[in-house]
Amino acid sequence: MPSRRIAAAAAVAAGGLLAAPALVSAQPALVWRMPSSFPKTLEALSGGAALFCRMVGEATDNRFQIRYSGPGEVVPPFQVLDAVQNGTVECCHTAAFYFTGKEPGFAFFTGMPFGMNTRHLNAWMYAGGGAELMAEFLEPYNAVPLAAGNTSAQMGGFFRRELRSVEDLRGLKFRISGLAGSVLQRLGTVPTQLPGGEIYAALERGAIDAAEWTGPYDDEKLGFHRVAPFYYYPGFMEGGALIHVLVNRERWAGLPKAYQTVLRLAAAEANHYTLAKYDAENPAALRRMVAQGAKLTAFPREILDACWREAFAMYEEMAKQNPRFARVHAPWSAFRAEQIAWSRVCEFGFDSYVYAKQGRG
Amino acid sequence: MPSRRIAAAAAVAAGGLLAAPALVSAQPALVWRMPSSFPKTLEALSGGAALFCRMVGEATDNRFQIRYSGPGEVVPPFQVLDAVQNGTVECCHTAAFYFTGKEPGFAFFTGMPFGMNTRHLNAWMYAGGGAELMAEFLEPYNAVPLAAGNTSAQMGGFFRRELRSVEDLRGLKFRISGLAGSVLQRLGTVPTQLPGGEIYAALERGAIDAAEWTGPYDDEKLGFHRVAPFYYYPGFMEGGALIHVLVNRERWAGLPKAYQTVLRLAAAEANHYTLAKYDAENPAALRRMVAQGAKLTAFPREILDACWREAFAMYEEMAKQNPRFARVHAPWSAFRAEQIAWSRVCEFGFDSYVYAKQGRG
């Protein structure tokens, strides 16, 4: 590639067309569009998208510009993958598990109920084979994935009524993403998937009984606690939710290697930032919501146990029926089990002691 | 900067010195040196350093090359900051807490005993004000810091004899980094700081009674378990240990903005990779070491409690005596307390349930 660029530059020089800007860089000037699935008001997610674009610009002296748009501005929030696949846009900012309607395996790459936590997901992506599996999985969708953010372990959502037993899940209309909806469906819940911007109104008018989004920082802005006060934890639906930039495959292949690397690196920075921003902002947001009447409530163990049973039974069934699901499920399960075995010793040992001690003042 | 570059390029063109390579990029061609404090055999750390260099090269079409060297090749392992400060080298790869001998505040930016875990450290660095505090702290050392790796919560080290009570810490010769040595000194331990490559021999011949390094992946290679079988956890000394690239201030200021951004982004990628590599490799390494005779042992609570008491008493004393320590201690304490309060609810709630459930099969 560099030698072709040198040749092209030399040809321009020979032709006497040597304008000053052409000298600044032999890299192509590009302007890409990146629609996002996430409302711009959610500043850890939109901030991550904006940071990604800014870093790509800065690292290339603004030769490579990516213009980020909110949901519906260019593409509806859940059609961003289609738009990347068919080349309508060059890339998008989204969460893979929004596309479990296409096939359930997408959920592995954002978050599975009782799946890997944020740390485990990153270990899988950056050094455990997860990135390679995801790239392979996305080939039929004509997309190249980059990990670009994480919400961390999410809260379990807001409920208009308290949950006392597994029976209370029956008939419950619950806005929930990814495979968690399918798990709860096995227990009688009616899952719905709504974009972030439409949840509040549905919850307020009782069209849904419950909704989960991410965690306190976003949830507070969306205001769910004002209409559904029972705020449950932990969000067993997502021990972490990895966000991605998905790039159209031909557009990716057409980039100079340097630009590919800049995209990869800018995504890594956005991944740090989005998680860090949630971590930095969640504590105070949770305190404010509790002061405003949110009732912080742990899921009854009976409910967690029922969901655990149904989740892992469902994964086994899906793996039997769906070879593409099975292809990811086996290494995902093995990696997760290893991570848990090790995390329990050292990381959890440290956290358990410090949290208990600090909690006592 | 861009306009100056255009002018320079135009001047070259006017002088008829228009060689093809000069057209490829108007960015300067640079070769920097980056000595590391860490042995090249420790592949998560050295792999992070190598990845950082490779990413900088790829993102700049190899116009900006950084040559990484192991400890002692160019600079001795614990003199890398001095070499950056006086401009002998352009940057280094190290852990800030190796320099607590200069002043104790360095430890905040790598890891304090019972301090922030890896996740909290990253939240502080990328969105909680930690990066800005570290940059300010390093001004007198003429260095600009970039977060570039983490070992995660470390193990507590290898001991030739079992620890049964706080009394057993008295007179113990312990290779340990950062402020943890000072904490243990208050309980009668004799801390020593040796580079990674010199620990095994000292432990084997009984010059030291115990040594901590990082976690199973490195520890196994260093072979400590063969001469000191009691392998303690959790490593209260470091809930996470952040690794840095430190850049000479004038060299940083002289870089084009695009190169500064590339360094920042390459460090972010190295930070992900180093942690992920440890996470991916630690589980199997721990299993192998246990099979080879390492005796996995929890620190007695009495010892943890004594260390906790001494650690926080020491931080208070240091904050009273040392304004530069105090300047970081106050925001560090506040951020840590907030992180713990929130982590206990959601992240720890998720992990507790999943780890316990998975542990039962």
Describe the 3D structure.
Chain A has a domain at 2-152 and 239-280: D-Maltodextrin-Binding Protein, domain 2, CATH 3.40.190.170. Chain A has 14 helices and 11 strands. The first copy, chain A, has helices spanning 2-14, 20-24, 43-59, 80-85, 118-127, 130-138, 180-185, 199-204, 216-222, 249-253, 257-291, 301-321, 323-345, 347-359; strands at residues 30-35, 64-69, 91-94, 143-150, 157-159, 173-175, 190-192, 210-211, 230-233, 242-248, 295-298. Chain A has a 6-stranded mixed sheet with strand order 7-6-8-5-9-11. A 3-stranded antiparallel sheet of chain A has the order 3-10-4. In chain A, helix 3 (43-59) packs antiparallel against helix 11 (257-291), helix 9 (216-222) crosses helix 11 and helix 12 packs across helix 13 (323-345). Chains A and B meet through helix 1, helix 2, helix 3, helix 5 and helix 11 of A and helix 1, helix 2, helix 3, helix 5 and helix 11 of B.
